């Protein structure tokens, strides 16, 4: 059951840490609740005060900004916890999108919860989810893996380790490395459909779909610009082998295996039901 939206208020927020999603490009995506929380909070924790300052300024909001990022997180967290224990309401935002998605915010949330303090969700824009929405890739099963590694070997190892999953894979990648990343993907996984979502919600939003190797060549010739999400579609299911091929595999297996074991061996290789293969293997054996 949903709650009726509350009107903006000058009353203090309930104490706790508010994890709030901000626009990924279009300021029109800022929710009324986000702006209300930013206005009423006792302070805002942000990656870059210049970026968040522009957001607040665009909506006429004034609040105290405190940098919180990878480089100062361990030093800043104790003071944040002290403020929350004293009853403060603080907002955690990233430069764009949903905090904790490829940023250090989860460490703060974990410590806040461990201290028995409240954590409130203020959901909203998310670049990986927005990319999935417009890509046309299967969305019933997917996983997000942050920024791709910088080195070729690490990228190829990652693609190889994930390539067998029956799900859509989402990554962040920088524009200068996109062509190399797609080339590594093609080398590791072979022909695979991918989508490139670029500059989502902005003026030059673009979604391109194609085979990894083809897009690698295209982006090598004309490097892209902007912020990019790489969507790797699941591998297409292989067509089932024809009867002649199955018989050939069964005959080969029967040369060194019993009927039961030959059927099991071919079932594992083809994905076909073992019972049907057993009956066919028995018939082939009887034929001699």
Automatic annotation (TrEMBL):
GO terms for cellular component: cytoplasm. The keyword Lyase does not apply. It catalyses: cytidine(1402) in 16S rRNA + S-adenosyl-L-methionine = 2'-O-methylcytidine(1402) in 16S rRNA + S-adenosyl-L-homocysteine + H(+). Its EC number is 2.1.1.198. Gene3D superfamilies: Cobalt-precorrin-4 Transmethylase, Domain 1, Methyltransferase, Cobalt-precorrin-4 Transmethylase, Domain 2. Residues 17-216 form the Tetrapyrrole methylase domain. It is found in: Cytoplasm. It holds the Pfam family RsmI_C. Keywords: Cytoplasm, Methyltransferase, rRNA processing, S-adenosyl-L-methionine, Transferase. It is an enzyme of class 2 (transferase). GO terms for molecular function: rRNA (cytosine-2'-O-)-methyltransferase activity. Residues 241-285 form the RsmI HTH domain. Belongs to the methyltransferase superfamily. RsmI family. Catalyzes the 2'-O-methylation of the ribose of cytidine 1402 (C1402) in 16S rRNA. This is Ribosomal RNA small subunit methyltransferase I. It comes from Parvularcula dongshanensis. The gene is rsmI.
